[in-house]
Specification:
Largest sheet: 7 strands, parallel
Number of strands: 11
Radius of gyration: 18 Å
Order of helices and strands: EEEHEHEEEHEHEHEHEHHHHH
Number of helices: 11
Strand order of the largest sheet: 3-4-5-8-9-10-11
Shape: globular
Structural class: alpha/beta
Distance between the termini: 29 Å
């Protein structure tokens, strides 16, 4: 497995986004555990989750609990960096709400620690800015958690360039990751990716294949990805992830999966080498 770095930790160049295993349309637990174990068997050492990755109101942290169970039952579980997030909430009716208050973030972190069964969370990320709370206060809470040893590394998600710079300053230069949406269908995070490249901060594209509902249609929606895929005899999804990896060494995609075969195809992107011409063709989409 090829590797990249988040802070001072070496991780697999492609991680696993575990959200599809816990929200609407999720598989049964046996298939989810099989997917997680297949990823670990293949060398994945980064798994992305959040306390908000659940379906029903009474099961906050469902995804964190599932991951903890998978890691505890696998001999490579201790080698995995678990990246979780706080500040987003799901009332249970399919909607998403926000609470970026320092009090909530600190309480959420404590709950995540219990569910994951760890003394310190490997990577804790502020999930999404809350317009009701000054951004500096939210990131300040993450800084406090870092200083207190409750988390080992700090990141932010769904942030713009100004927020990235502000967060890094508040954290005293200790911001290690930015997790933003980025895919062929969603290119507006290019400035954030470039800034992370300049600063040496890991950039974690979420929904890199376009999201649960669009991932299968990537090749039909974007002809260049289908053409390059056909030339290499691989899936358009694999081409998409290889294209992202080629953009910068700070990029660590976290494609979602709920089937073993899906994550295994994604991981194979680390061995796919695209030509400069192919990359230029895909960049032009």
């Amino acid at each position: 497995m090829h590797t990249r770095r988040i802070g001072d930790v070496e991780v697999s160049a492609i991680g696993l986004g575990a959200m599809p295993m816990s929200i609407e349309g999720r598989p049964d637990e046996a298939r989810s555990l099989a997917t997680l174990h297949a990823a670990l068997d293949a060398g994945v050492t980064l798994i992305d989750t959040a306390d908000a990755y659940h379906r029903d109101a009474d099961e906050v942290g469902h995804n964190e609990t599932l991951i903890a169970k998978a890691l505890a039952s696998h001999d490579r579980g201790k080698d995995v960096l678990v990246a979780t997030k706080g500040g987003h909430l799901r009332p249970g009716d399919g909607s998403w709400t926000l609470d970026g208050s320092p009090r909530h973030l600190k309480e959420a972190c404590e709950a995540s620690l219990r569910r994951l069964g760890v003394e310190a969370i490997g990577l804790y990320q502020f999930h999404r800015p809350d317009p009701r709370v000054p951004y500096a206060e939210s990131v300040g809470a993450v800084r406090d958690l870092l200083d207190e040893g409750k988390i080992r590394m700090a990141g932010i998600s769904n942030a713009n360039p100004d927020q990235i710079r502000q967060a890094n300053e508040i954290l005293g230069g200790r911001l290690v990751s930015v997790q933003n949406q980025f895919s062929p269908a969603f290119r507006s995070s290019e400035p954030e990716l470039r800034l992370c490249d300049d600063l040496g901060i890991a950039f974690l594209p979420w929904s890199p294949l376009g999201g649960i509902s669009r991932a299968r249609e990537l090749g039909s929606a974007y002809a260049p990805f289908a053409r390059v895929a056909e030339a290499h005899g691989v899936s358009p999804q694999r081409v998409c992830l290889a294209w992202m990896l080629a953009k910068s060494p700070v990029v660590v995609p976290i494609p979602g999966a709920s089937r073993p075969e899906t994550i295994l195809d994604s991981l194979a992107a680390t061995d796919l080498v695209l030509s400069a011409g192919e990359i230029a063709e895909l960049d032009a989409v």
